[in-house]
Specification:
- The structure is a single chain.
- The longest helix has 27 residues.
- Helices cover 38% and strands 12% of the residues.
- The protein is globular and about 55 Å long.
- α4 crosses α6.
- The chain has a four-stranded antiparallel beta sheet. A two-stranded antiparallel ribbon has the order 4-5.
Length: 304
């Protein structure tokens, strides 16, 4: 807590602000550029525990990040609509789900350039439930790191495939923040609903998945947002609230940059997250994430 800034993370996130605006950089950016940067450095220093599995997972993620993209072919291949093909290629590369939406300026962090590409191809990768049940733990940290690497690998494979056909493409995968946030695009692309815990709920994986994406200008068709009842369910479910050690998950939706939505208290969540080398407890306990419950729950809500 000696690294904690005077500025509230909730204020940076725009809690209570009635007017829409672009999000502000807050965490997982260049630590020299944000008030919480010293905390971010401390987290990474402390998480270098010498655990060989953590080290191996991080080394593999860095190897994937460093992979070069295919050269851009000089003659662009022409198609009326690439949607089915890019989804097929993404799934063949290992994606568990894929959605398409238009890139919007309000997804981009304030002060950063809006990417020139028109489309976002959003990729979902599921996580191992048993590993995440142990959160917060080194085992869960390893699983999260592996899945971020997998998402990045898939995004690079799809971007390279497009470049080989003469179309520039930009791949992005976490956990470090790029110039834009992924969750709003993933919601628009039909990959799920926002849950009380501030993360997405996918109809198949619940909250137990990670995101990556590819930006491109090839002709695509946008998917539509999906609604299967998760928002209403969250209004009456208290599982994640009661499981959260720092009591960071709020009872009611909050006004955040002009939108009433679920929100997690940043100033309560982050210290616990840093102290425990990550968390994800709320994602693991979510009823939608439990393999023996989630699918039946979604089917029941959809029948309603």
């Amino acid at each position: 807590m000696s690294h904690w800034p005077r500025t509230s993370g909730n204020a940076i996130n725009g809690v209570g602000e009635p007017a829409p605006r672009r999000p502000s950089p807050i965490y997982w950016h260049d630590p020299d550029s944000t008030p919480h940067g010293p905390l971010q450095r401390w987290f990474y220093q402390r998480s270098n525990t010498g655990d060989p599995e953590v080290a191996a997972a991080r080394a593999e993620r860095q190897r994937v990040i460093d992979l070069p993209l295919a050269p851009l072919a000089e003659v662009p291949e022409q198609r009326a609509d690439w949607s089915d093909e890019v989804k097929r290629i993404a799934r063949e590369a290992g994606a568990d789900d894929v959605g398409i939406t238009a890139m919007r300026a309000d997804y981009v962090f304030a002060g950063l350039d809006v990417p020139p590409q028109r489309w976002m191809i959003v990729i979902a990768v599921g996580q191992d439930y048993e590993a995440m049940r142990s959160a917060p733990s080194s085992r869960a940290l390893v699983e999260v790191t592996r899945q971020y690497a997998r998402g990045t690998r898939i995004a690079k494979a799809l971007a390279s495939w497009l470049r080989e056909r003469g179309h520039d493409a930009f791949p992005y995968g976490g956990p470090m923040a790029g110039s834009f946030i992924l969750i709003p695009g993933a919601l628009a692309a039909g990959l799920g609903e926002l849950g009380r815990h501030g993360s997405m709920i996918h109809p198949r994986f619940g909250s137990n998945f990670r995101l990556a994406c590819v930006l491109t200008d090839v002709p695509l068709t946008a998917d539509q947002p999906t609604t299967f009842g998760a928002d209403d369910f969250c209004s009456n479910c208290r599982v994640c609230i009661e499981a959260c050690p720092p009591a960071a998950i709020l009872e009611d939706k909050q006004l955040v940059r002009g939108e009433q939505r679920w929100y997690v208290d940043f100033d309560k969540c982050l210290p616990y997250f840093n102290e425990n080398l990550g968390c994800a407890l709320c994602l693991a306990v979510c009823p939608f994430s439990r393999p023996e419950i989630g699918a039946n729950l979604v089917a029941k809500l959809r029948r309603r």
